[in-house]
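Quick one: SAM-dependent methyltransferase from Amycolatopsis antarctica, structure tokens please.
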Amino acid sequence: MDREFEDLVAEAAAVPVDGWDFAWLDGRATEERPSWGYARLLAARMAEAGVALDVQTGGGEVLAGVGRRAPLTVAVESWPPNLARASVNLRPLGVHVVAAGDVPRLPLRAGTVDLVSARHPVTTWWDEIGRVLRPGGTFLSQQVGQATMAELTEFFLGPQPVDDSRSTGRAVAAAERAGMDVVDLRSESLLAEFHDVGAVVYFLRKVVWTVPGFEVDRYRDRLRAMHERIREGGSFQAYTKRFLVETRKRPA
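--- reply ---
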């Protein structure tokens, strides 16, 4: 038995994965960050907003890190473990934390919001965002791009069909249909490296769409192969795809 492999996998399988904080990977995995600096852009937009809505806030970590938020800031989240963490992180800062269901309906009246933000939304509710924004209001989002972490996905699942559902073209078309004009659109491919198999297990448990249905026992043989590959080469490399999209709501 390879005790190193078993220990790394067991440790990563036992770590809680709620929230959207990846601090457990410090020293075990690295990922380049987009050059545009989403948190900095969000802080600048928040400083100009009277009413702001952060969609799919996760554990609220990004929003909590913004030095100044809009006087009325609402954060919505649907996954109960993240909702609990967001409440702890955001309510002491004066942010209203609201449970949102899977049905795409945002808890604000039409035309009342100056800024809607979303970092890495699972699904972007374009029509709802367009509904709640006031004319001239801003939607700012950093999105997971097409074929992100494809190298990691294909290591476990083999070659995958092309899926353009997360393409920038789709995002632009959806924004325009929802009554918004795109004023900024940027994309980058960023290197990610995993330095031990435990980091891979943790990542796949947390970012569940990378390998849908991932379970350690189900993929133990591939994890063992991953362990050997990292031991021989020093790391496993993959590329995350990110794009920034900023829109303005058209006048009524």
